[in-house]
Amino acid sequence: MAGWTGAAVWAAGLVAFSTLPPHRLWGAWAAAGYLGASLAAALLRGPRARTVALVSALSGAVAVPFGHLLLTGRAQSEVGVIERSAALLLHHGTPYLAHPQAVTDYNPYLPGMALFGLPAALLGDGGAVARLLGDARLWCAVVLLVCLAGGRAVLRRGVDGEAAGPASAGGLLVLVASPLVALPLCVSGVDLPLTGLCWLGLALAARGRAGAAGLALAAACALKWTALPAVAVAAALLAGTRGGRSALRCAAAWSAAVVALVLPAALVAPGPLVEQVLAFPTGRAEVATPAASPLPGRLLAEWGPAGWYAAVLLLLCGGAAVALSLVVRPPAGCVAAADRLAVGLCVAFLFAPAGRFGYFTLPLLLVVWSRSATGTLPGAGHRWAPLRRGRTAGRGGRRPPWPTARPLPAGTRLPSAAALRARGTTGSPDEATTPVLAARAPARAPTTVVPALAVPPPAPPGGPR
């Protein structure tokens, strides 16, 4: 009830303070849907309360405003930019205008983003069905949902073939109904496929599928250069868990796919690509970018050239610090990798010379969904619980398939290195534990004792907890 109430208050705030008509329309419908969900959670009990609340939230925050905005063609300006870039790509081989004059003439996205506008370019504006199926927001939402569900399916296949995370789709539906996804899905949608592809790449890397991870991240990098940090995080994850060869395979697949997706359009119009994709988002183009949230990098850039260079220097220092953390302590699982990528993206958005608060949807979505998909949210069931006295904490308390160690009695003293050398041992930790375990073994124990303390259990999916 508290969660849906907070979402309703936030949506009502858009109605009161936003100057964008699509945002105000979404806020009015979403506030009503969230308020209905809050009342259902407060007045009903059991599974019925959850079902009614979720239906109310999805109806008010997604279904009704999404359908209305698609049928009327009302959206943020970037949706029109994507659909125009698709038409330019079909007729001229490049998604960029040669001589942009206004803000809406600039296309700050890489050529892959134009693919989401192809349905509109092919179907035209012939009727309601064409407007619904041709709108770029619809296909951005489809890619997001497919990537989120696909990444979770990849992680659910644990080392023993059993599910490693929650199996129901309720978490995904709640995430879609939340303002974190519902607002950008209805009014813009351009950052949603980027988020989904980054998540899918990290999930594939966590499972050791280096080539597939490289292809997924290449698709993300073909949309926006914001996805570049995800490549470094995935490579560090593979290098730390699977070895350097896996990281190299991921980098090779990524490089080949990026060249195939971006190079043709770059060769046709290299000048407009550099001006619109690199100069415009950083505030160095002839037309100022409308991304003007009061973030530190933006405030520094307003001080003139010296402030702009100071913001870029801070941005490079933050990126170097995150890169150093990947080398010193690479992530050991999908959750850790998503957290590291979220930190890097937050640093980039904070110190970029131009940015919006809406950009933080990407790192927040990565952090929330990585925990939901792996079952590490507070209160979520997860079978990779910490071991207790040599037994697993889930599924009937079965013993794990690996050797485990029993706790030593209080006051037990391990033999010293000199005593071990006198007995003919090398004094290694493995041999140091063998006499103690053998002394505590029953009389019918076999003569060969496995040094249990030297065999750690395998790391669970998503990294150590």
UniProtKB/TrEMBL annotation:
Query: What Pfam families does the database record attribute to this sequence?
Result: GT87
Membrane-spanning residues where? 26-44, 51-71, 136-155, 167-190, 210-239, 251-269, 306-329, 341-369
Q: Which InterPro entries match?
A: GT87 (IPR018584)
Keyword line = Cell membrane, Membrane, Transferase, Transmembrane, Transmembrane helix
| GO molecular function per UniProt | hexosyltransferase activity
Family assignment from sequence similarity = Belongs to the glycosyltransferase 87 family.
What is the protein name for this chain?
A: DUF2029 domain-containing protein
